[in-house]
Design brief:
Distance between the termini: 146 Å
Shape: flat
Strand content: 5-15%
Mean pLDDT: 83
Number of strands: 12
Radius of gyration: 38 Å
Structural class: alpha+beta
């Protein structure tokens, strides 16, 4: 089958990206061999289901990777706690109660979509890849049944390129698919080669190349698949046959990098930093095991005459020698020093734990610790991971949330928004435990300021400078209090007006009661005045 100009161009681009990645592959393979053996098939051809831990004599590095991956999962995308919320960039709109209510409903719909999909297991795999390889890739696609589907891809499938802003906007993915699955996915578009494989052995795998990149020319006014910002092309890698040409309105992959050098495209990981210590630890453990085995079952010194071989070394075994001679079987002193080896191993474990923040992440809260000490230790833990958060927010969380939001919006999964919200820009606010820990210092500063103002309130009206309405809203945002638990500004204003009216009415009633009481006191006097006036007039006449 003849290759089209498009397939030739894409295969040429793929070959260039493949060449740029070759230096990384041996590094990834070595890291995976020691710290993630289940994915140690970058440069090695591994049979599915075979043992992959032949190089590992100490599992503590694997445990450190698992701990850091679980910690990032719990601190960034914890399924049991909110980890993001939506808000409008326009502050005037943000203060509108209807806008807040709609944003909360949209946020709840997104959480529902995340929880009902396969997001949690796939994001956990992504954290593993990120910590091990320094680069991870997740494919986010629309699904007719589940609306949205997540798929973390193995690093050996992914070939990436950056744009002028240092953002990944191009990805080539070379992967294997059974002939049966290829026919199901692409139908009659498959070549005769795959059709023949399908008829002969439907479970034999074929290689597919998927390319996603910015479309050079498209009309944003048109809504067809040929006029989307990102082009998506599936090819048969062997013959370049075009299987599918479509597009995406957003870049469908999230490709975070743990750390990155300015002149490199792929990221670097803590596993790469710890690799020398991990390799040394494994060699030490192997040597220590041999030394311990020699001490428990030592080599023997046996005279070369006067004995009936073989020597019985089993428990209770009897070995005869001539009485009165020194010609006996004795263990060979090998001069092993196990404590020295064990101490050196522990030093390497400490170095590995430091790279993966094991001591900080495993910090236990003792009963003698005060609440302040607990907060301070948690803040210290968060500060250690703070530098990683910035890159993960820009390369993982933001594109992830944007992609999911747009998919749900196109599938009408949100309630109808008020008309005045049309065309308003929405931004993401992170409220994960890690993000909250970063805001805790602001909360402490505010509470400290209130405490100081309270001590000064006895000598000066300092609270006149504080807008308590805004203070309450800001504190609620810092601690992540749901909007539905707060009264709207209109409701608060109405209640305040009602309270003011009731107070005014009560004051008027009190005044009326005072007037009535005064009138009651004057009435007897007024009744007596006519009689006294009459008596006085009669006296004047006389």
């Amino acid at each position: 089958m003849a290759r089209t100009d498009l397939s030739k161009n894409l295969l040429s681009r793929y070959e260039k990206l493949e060449g740029q990645r070759q230096n990384w592959e041996t590094h990834w393979q070595e890291v995976a061999d020691y710290m993630q053996p289940r994915k140690a098939d970058v440069t090695k051809t591994r049979a599915r289901g075979d043992k992959r831990n032949e190089l590992i004599f100490d599992s503590s590095p694997i445990q450190a990777v698992e701990l850091l991956a679980a910690s990032l999962h719990g601190m960034l995308t914890n399924p049991s706690t909110p980890w993001f919320t939506l808000r409008f960039k326009d502050e005037d709109v943000e203060n509108e109660d209807e806008a807040k209510i709609w944003l909360e409903s949209a946020t709840d719909a997104m959480y529902t979509a995340f929880n009902r999909s396969n997001f949690q297991q796939e994001i956990f795999e992504l954290y593993h890849d990120l910590i091990t390889f320094g680069t991870a890739a997740m494919f986010i696609e629309e699904d007719q049944e589940d609306i949205i589907k997540f798929s973390t891809r193995h690093i050996n499938e992914v070939f990436i390129a950056e744009n002028d802003k240092g953002r990944i906007d191009t990805i080539f993915r070379r992967f294997k698919l059974s002939a049966r699955a290829a026919v199901q996915k692409f139908g009659d578009a498959v070549s005769s080669d795959i059709q023949g494989i399908f008829r002969k052995d439907p479970y034999q795998e074929v290689e597919i190349l998927h390319a996603v990149y910015p479309r050079a020319d498209f009309d944003p006014k048109k809504k067809d698949k040929e006029n989307m910002p990102f082009e998506s092309v599936y090819l048969e890698y062997k013959n370049g046959n075009e299987l599918s040409i479509s597009g995406f309105k957003e870049f469908p992959f999230v490709v975070p990098r743990y750390l990155k050098a300015s002149n490199e495209i792929y990221g670097r990981s803590p596993a790469m930093t710890a690799l020398p210590d991990v390799k040394m630890l494994n060699e030490m453990s192997k040597t220590t095991i041999k030394a311990a085995q020699k001490q428990v079952d030592p080599p023997l010194l046996v005279p070369d005459d006067g004995f009936l071989l073989p020597v019985r070394t089993v428990p209770g075994g009897l070995n005869f020698y001539r009485s009165g001679t020194r010609d006996r079987i004795e263990p060979l002193n090998i001069g092993a020093n196990n404590p020295l080896g064990l101490n050196m191993e522990e030093q390497r474990r400490d170095a590995i734990r430091a790279v993966f923040y094991v001591n900080q992440l495993m910090m236990q809260q003792g009963p003698q610790m005060t609440a302040t000490e607990v907060i301070q230790r948690n803040e210290e833990k968060m500060r250690l991971l703070g530098p990683v958060l910035g890159r993960l927010q820009s390369e993982l969380l933001k594109p992830l949330i944007d992609r999911v939001f747009n998919i749900l919006l196109r599938n009408n999964m949100f309630v109808q928004a008020p008309e005045f919200l049309s065309g308003r820009d929405i931004e993401i606010e992170y409220v994960s435990p890690l993000a909250k820990a970063q805001k805790s210092s602001e909360l402490q500063s505010i509470m400290r300021a209130i405490e100081i103002l309270g001590s000064l309130a006895n000598v000066a009206p300092v609270f006149d400078y504080v807008n308590f309405d805004n203070l309450v809203k800001h504190l609620a945002d810092i601690v992540g209090m749901p909007q539905k638990l707060l009264k709207s500004q209109n409701q608060v204003n109405a209640e305040r007006q009602e309270q003011a009216a009731q107070a005014e009415q009560q004051q008027q009633m009190a005044q009326m009661q005072q007037v009535a009481q005064a009138a009651g006191d004057v009435a007897p006097l007024a009744k007596a005045l006519p009689d006294e006036a009459k008596a006085l007039a009669n006296a004047e006449v006389e």
